Amino acid sequence: MAAVQLKQIYKKYDDTQVLHGIDLDIADGEFVVLVGPSGCGKSTLMRMVAGLESISDGDFYIDGKRANDLPPQQRNIAMVFQSYALYPHLTVYENIAFGPRLRKEPESSFGPRIKAAAAMLNLSPYLQRLPKALSGGQRQRVAMGRAVVREPALFLFDEPLSNLDAKLRVQMRAEIKALHQRLKNTVIYVTHDQIEAITMGDRIVVMNAGKIEQVGKPLDIYDRPANLFVAGFIGSPSMNFIAGTVQIDANQPSLITANDIKIKLPQLDLKAGQKITIGIRPEHIRIERTNNSSNIKLRLDIIEPTGSETYLYGKIDHAPCCIALRERLNFAADDEIQANLPIEHLHVFDTETTCRIN
Ligand code: ADP
Asked: Coiled-coil region(s) at which residues (predicted)?
């Protein structure tokens, strides 16, 4: 069992305030991903949970008990870092056995746990090998094995896949998720990679500059980002933004850009003259073949085929715009196309507060 609660958590290093009042409830057995750009305070928060960093202010609870000053070894937590930090002179088995031996556990107790962990992590054939004879992915699995044999109530992963190549990252993502489904313990996972966050988390916590911007299920956040930061951070290629002012004609609101492009808006609580920014995801922009007054003309700058999708880059009213297409259409740089921004896919934000307008 490990439910974790953070209440108004602050962190200050000398004069620098790094975390500004973090509130977060993590249920027992949940897989929560902390995601945000480098330097936003994710690792600091995780190290506080591990007991490796003091809490400047606020309350931290494990299973309802205040644990601000609980020593790390009493927290029933295991951590997996980006650098696997394996002992090069010890075999895989001895690397995993290092912790239990240090705690003076008898081998009759931890031996079977190592065998079970090795089987689960596909490491059984490698137990007698030295780390130098393993691939990057296998080394990362040994680091996970060390965490698993502790049978912790809470797993902390700090960017564990950053050192792996792209293909291995995708594979390990699935393995960590499968491990969680089997062990069902609580996981807090830190990453700056929003794809990792979306694919792995039961819930994701989007952080920026020491604050939480939004907490929610991955697809809820993708579909309804709470503000401009989250809208731009989650999703790849990023959401497109167009800024302008609200105009209302006979109850129909529209966005008018600086260069007088007019885009129809959904019926929301908007005021004439209000400065807003609309967002639309690259996959939601449609290319139109027939002329229509609501189409937007777009000159293409760059065409980027990825195999499964093609990205078309251009500009709408000087703002960069990306369109993601699943079909392979023959476009070239400098072509002019007509784009349609379907009203049901528009996200509308107040430019000043940056908040979503519902
Ligand atoms: P992230 O994990 O999101 O990249 P960190 O939690 O590592 O961010 O860092 C958050 C901020 O705190 C950064 O601006 C970093 O420079 C600062 N910071 C981290 N550790 C220390 C420290 N020991 N002393 C002073 N500043 C620190």
From this structure: none
Cross-strand pairs, 314: 300, 321
pTM for the structure as a whole: 0.92
Query: Is 310 a pocket residue for ligand 1 (Cβ < 6 Å)?
Result: no
pLDDT in tens, the chain (358 residues): 799 999 999 999 999 999 999 999 999 999 999 999 999 999 999 999 999 999 999 999 999 999 999 999 899 999 888 777 899 999 999 999 999 999 899 999 999 999 998 988 889 999 999 999 998 888 988 998 998 898 888 999 999 888 778 888 888 888 889 889 988 999 999 999 999 999 999 999 999 999 999 999 999 999 999 999 999 999 999 999 999 999 999 999 999 999 999 999 999 999 999 999 999 999 999 999 888 888 999 999 999 999 999 999 999 988 999 999 998 888 999 999 999 999 999 999 999 999 999 9
Residue 54 Cα, ligand 1 centroid: separation in angstroms? 13
- Domain 240-350 bears CATH identifier 2.40.50.140: yes
Nearest CA to ligand 1 atom 7: 43
Q: What are the start and end residues of each CATH 2.40.50.140 domain in the chain?
A: 240-350
- CATH number for the domain running over 4-225: 3.40.50.300
